[in-house]
Design a protein that fits this description.
19% of the residues lie in helices and 37% in strands. It has helices at residues 9-20, 44-47, 62-65, 74-90, 92-97, 121-131, 163-176, 205-211, 275-281, and strands at residues 2-5, 22-25, 40-42, 101-107, 112-117, 136-140, 150-151, 158-160, 180-183, 186-187, 195-197, 200-204, 215-219, 224-229, 232-237, 242-249, 252-259, 265-267, 270-274, 285-289, 294-298, 317-326, 329-338, 344-349, 354-359, 365-368, 379-384, 389-396, 410-417, 434-440.
């Protein structure tokens, strides 16, 4: 007889779940082999937390537990198949752009359970909006991990999961959550931690790039990140596995597309980018210390720049902005510049020609330029010559929508230039009419 001495309650729980539910794992891993029940003997005194499970279960064999399998209706199985097709085949990219991952689905008596990570109400409501709430339950999911098993060299029929193995696994979990970033010998204090996926380190967009002296711009409508450094621009689209690199070589712009080992993604509302690829593309040297799980970045040729350091390709507009804090007000100066080689005529409303929205660190809106304002609706035309710009200015008195004065914190201003497009004219990409300004009070 083969004896399986399992030490942790979790292991038994995983076995019971696998035997009793119709489960689909998102990673599509190989199905484990299951020994016949009459060949398994479990020391339940070691396995079970006696304070949490009924005492009479201690005398129940695994084979008895399997004698009455739970029946799942064909309706639920069919619904699970439809959900799986939507999540894992037809709409994978849309799910990735929402910033969460589906770890599994499981059919139960009268509902299908969907596990997601990280779990938050916004993601759950998004899925409920697609599948409804009557027969669907969204829960926090965890990615499965496989423990290494030690085989007794003398009696191969005895399988041990030792305490040292469990401690090692626990240590690995702690290490995985503790990836650090070091730039020129200095550890960065980040408000969110980097993590590893497909053997690639994903780093938070904000914080690391600024430390390297690069400028970062985020265009939420297009899910696009633009990173500027001297004579180079990197564009990443959330959920896509390619990056566009634009280099200024002797005054000539050259573009290329590079395949990524891991996609940029949004996790918990924060944007993460492939760290090694981006930093090396910007000219930095990157090393990895596996023992301490530190990404070490050395950079000597990246200095503070503005996106003006890299000319925009001809045939485009560019929106740029800056701010100053003066007399208890934040003053924004911004402009729409033409990189076309011929004059352009743009159509605006005679009243509102731009919108400014300011959000705090929790992404809560604290100011909107158009609130409580009334604008005329007449149309006007403005001409803009090559290399010239149309300029605007706005002031924020640092009060929120409740009229409270804000004196500290980090904020982000998103500025949109409101060009009214004409049907027969060339369409202007939204990213050309948008700029993001990060600032602190």
């Amino acid at each position: 007889m083969i004896k399986s001495k399992l030490i942790k309650t979790l292991t038994l729980g995983i076995c019971f779940t696998a035997l009793s539910s119709n489960m689909v794992l998102a990673n599509g891993g190989v199905q484990p082999s299951i020994l016949p029940s009459d060949m398994i003997e479990i020391d339940l005194n070691q396995v079970i937390d006696m304070k949490r499970l009924p005492v009479d279960l201690l005398d129940t064999s695994v084979s008895d537990l399997r004698q009455e399998p739970r029946e799942i209706s064909g309706e639920m199985i069919q619904k699970q198949k439809e959900i799986d097709r939507y999540l894992f085949k037809d709409h994978v990219k849309e799910i990735e752009k929402k910033g969460f991952a589906v770890t599994y689905t499981g059919a139960f008596d009268d509902y299908v359970e969907i596990g997601i990570t990280p779990y938050n109400e916004e993601s759950a409501q998004y899925l409920y909006g697609i599948f409804g709430k009557d027969q669907v339950k969204i829960v926090e999911g965890q990615q499965a991990s496989i423990l290494p098993i030690e085989i007794d060299a003398i009696d191969i029929g005895v399988i041990h999961v030792s305490e040292s193995t469990l401690e090692l696994k626990s240590q690995r979990i702690k290490e995985d959550s503790g990836v650090k970033i070091q730039v020129n010998g200095e550890f960065l204090q980040l408000d969110v931690e980097p993590f590893i996926e497909n053997d690639r380190t994903l780093i938070p967009l904000r914080g690391v790039m600024e430390k390297l002296g690069a400028k970062v711009e985020w265009y939420p409508e297009e899910s696009t990140v633009k990173i500027y450094a001297e004579d180079i621009r990197i564009e990443l689209v959330i959920g896509e596995d390619t990056a566009k690199i634009t280099k200024n070589i002797d005054g000539e712009l050259k573009e290329e597309r590079i395949k990524l080992g891991v996609k940029a993604k949004i996790v918990g509302g924060r944007t993460f980018i492939p760290g090694r690829f981006v930093t090396e593309t910007l000219g930095a040297k990157v090393d990895w210390d596996n023992s301490s799980r530190v990404m070490m970045i050395e950079s000597s040729n990246i200095s503070d720049i503005d996106s003006e350091g890299l000319p925009i390709a001809e045939g485009k507009f560019e929106t740029k902005g800056s701010y100053v804090i003066k007399d208890d007000k934040v003053v924004f100066d911004f402009e729409l510049m033409s990189h076309y080689t011929e004059p352009k005529e743009l159509q605006f409303g005679s009243g509102q020609q731009f919108e400014i929205v300011i959000v705090n660190e929790e992404d809560e809106e604290v100011y909107r330029y158009s609130d409580d304002k009334f604008f005329t609706l007449a149309l006007i035309f403005k001409n803009i010559n090559p290399g010239e710009a149309i300029k605007w200015q706005d002031e924020w008195d640092m009060t929120n929508k409740e009229g409270e004065k804000l004196t500290s914190g980090k904020y982000q201003a998103k500025i949109n230039v409101l060009v009214i497009e004409e049907e027969k004219k060339e369409k202007i990409e939204k990213s050309q009419l948008t700029t993001i300004i990060d600032f602190s009070l």
